UniProtKB/TrEMBL annotation, chains A, B:
One of its GO terms (molecular function) is DNA binding. PROSITE patterns: HTH_HXLR (PS51118). Keywords: DNA-binding, Transcription, Transcription regulation. The keyword DNA-binding applies. The keyword Manganese does not apply. This is Transcriptional regulator. It comes from the Bacteria. InterPro entries: HTH_HxlR, WH-like_DNA-bd_sf, WH_DNA-bd_sf. Residues 14-112 form the HTH hxlR-type domain. Gene3D superfamilies: Winged helix-like DNA-binding domain superfamily/Winged helix DNA-binding domain. It comes from Sphaerisporangium melleum.
DNA sequence: CAGCATCCGAACCGATACTG
DNA sequence: CAGTATCGGTTCGGATGCTG
């Protein structure tokens, strides 16, 4: 599995940004998806997560490592190479992520419609229920 | 379904507080569970969510209402009575919540163990995902 | 009973700049 | 390449006190 990740794997325009389901931190679920096909390098993961800064991605990866979701393997080469890979525990999240995505495909439009309808009648500063 | 909710429905000691899965805001998933059995009143919902302030619960409920997950019915009585009930859309989250809980039952101990093991070797201020 | 108002602290995310 | 360091802004959740 060495095909490069699709840069548009996570379209920023996709309403999934408004998804009420979250796994770990903001990027955790996406990282899980990125690593679903096998080990990936730091920079490789950054591509589909357009806009994520190295600091934040490092935070996410470190947290996942702490929680036993990924393994980090550094090769003492030049240039340096580091690979992240899902552990069995991390892989166990794939089902959940899939379930969340299935829910979104099926019900997110209705949720978004309800939200839009409320914004019509309620011109109050609608809070963004995004975490 | 008028039996009072179990005050210990969500034990604060339960490691689910460390759960990496979140539906909506912090309390949304628990509210969904509270309303699974039928309509409930504001104060009734507060009981199992020990510690939640009315402000935050109102925020949660309002957001859920906006998103079409619950309906709010106020009865112009004295004393005032308000009931919240899951919509079909809100009920559609029950499967997802169940999936998340199933994952937790099965894998959360391993995650917590991994985290604890890391804290042994890394005495750095480990990010506590709990408030 | 069912909220609302106000203040506060913590968490998280992001931009920018710099290094082995 | 793979990070680290620093700074800042936004959001969220909680405590307290008051009202129709």
């Amino acid at each position: 599995m060495s095909e490069p990740l699709d840069p548009e794997m996570f379209d920023p325009v996709c309403p999934s940004s408004a998804m009420p389901i979250q796994i770990g931190d903001k990027w955790t679920a996406m990282v899980v998806l990125c690593l679903a096909g096998g080990p990936r390098r730091f920079t490789e993961i950054r591509v589909p997560l357009r806009g994520v800064t190295p600091k934040v991605l490092t935070q996410t990866l470190r947290a996942m490592e702490r929680d036993g979701l990924v393994t980090r393997t550094a090769y003492a080469e030049n240039p340096p190479r580091v690979e992240y890979e899902l552990t069995p525990l991390g892989r166990s999240l794939l089902d959940l992520v899939a379930a969340a995505r299935a829910w979104s495909r099926e019900h997110l439009p209705a949720l978004l419609a309800a939200r839009a309808a409320h914004e019509d009648g309620a011109p109050v500063g609608a809070g963004r229920p995004e975490a």
